[in-house]
Amino acid sequence: MSSLIKIDRIAIIGVGLIGGSLALALKQVGAVNKIIGYCRSRESGQLALDLGVIDHLASTVDEAVTQADVVVLATPVGVMPSLLEAVARNMNPTAVVTDVGSVKESISKAADHALGEHGHRFVPAHPVAGAEYSGVSAAKADLFRGKRVILTPQRDTDSQACAVVQGMWQVVGAEVIEMSAKQHDEILSATSHLPHVLAFALVDWLAQQDRGDLFDFAAGGFYDFTRIASSDPAMWRDICLANKQQLLLRLRNFQQVIGEMASLIDSGSADELMQIFERAKAARDLALPRSDSTRSK
Predict the structure, then answer these.
(1) Burial environment of residue 87 by CB neighbours within 10 A (0 to 12, 13 to 18, 19 or more)
(2) How far apart are CA 72 and CA 98, in angstroms?
(3) Torsion angle, CA of 268/283/101/144, rounded to 10 degrees?
């Protein structure tokens, strides 16, 4: 086992794809003694217990966090504010609290409000990893290996708490980097949130067309582009609303780009289209080599 960290008791609130994968990864490397899980759905929680992902299924958030050394919120971001209030009622004062949400500014503010004097023990985190499938049955121990985890500590975040969260992610094979919550939300609105909205919108639009043969002729490009439209709708609804300002800015800018593309096609501007396509191909090939085509959201 890596010497980076050893957690005695960890509480994972929301044992789905991300929470379940973290549990499996920590178990695989022997970095935790006991994992307590809590799920809003008793059925999902029981499945996590039956699969051996968690060691104990708590019936309430209060029960889950009592005596936990680390608390991980791995739920849709929309329910995190209320969960943070529940955590605050029973958390060990020395516990470290963290999350895995794809939006950081709003969650940081919610943590400050809910945790009060313990707010400095909250370390915002976002593992940039995932899959189009959700639920604990999709969890896998190697999900974070070689992936990035972004920490967005605030000015008063406890340095020891940061070290615990950093060590937790490093021990499961992730690369940990830090940036501000604002920078995180700006970047992810473009590279993750916008692509998901576009994929959902395209599939929904096609599904609403008054003909039944469109999906019968979907080829590889369609599958590649729309794979993420199979992601958890509730999670992405919450992300869109939590990062509304940044996402709206990206959407409005992209609307202009689509309008310009339509004009070029309408006018038969072959040279201009070729320049855009070549520029985009060069940028994509440089930033995301083909061998890294499996990088997740």
Answers:
(1) buried
(2) 5
(3) 130
Could you tell me the sign of the dihedral formed by the alpha carbons of 271, 275, 278, 280, in that order? negative
Confidence tier at 1 by pLDDT (50, 70, 90): very low
- Considering the four listed CATH numbers 1.20.1090.10, 3.40.50.10160, 1.20.120.1220, 3.40.50.720, the one that applies to the domain covering 7-182 is 3.40.50.720
Q: What's the pLDDT tens digit per position in 181-227?
A: 999 999 999 999 999 999 999 999 999 986 777 788 888 888 888 99
Query: pLDDT tens digits for 84-105?
Result: 999 999 999 999 999 999 999 9
CATH of 190-292, one of 3.40.50.12780, 1.10.3660.10, 1.20.1280.290, 3.60.20.30: 1.10.3660.10
Q: Which residues pair with 98 in a beta bridge?
A: 72, 123
pTM of the predicted structure, to 2 decimals: 0.89
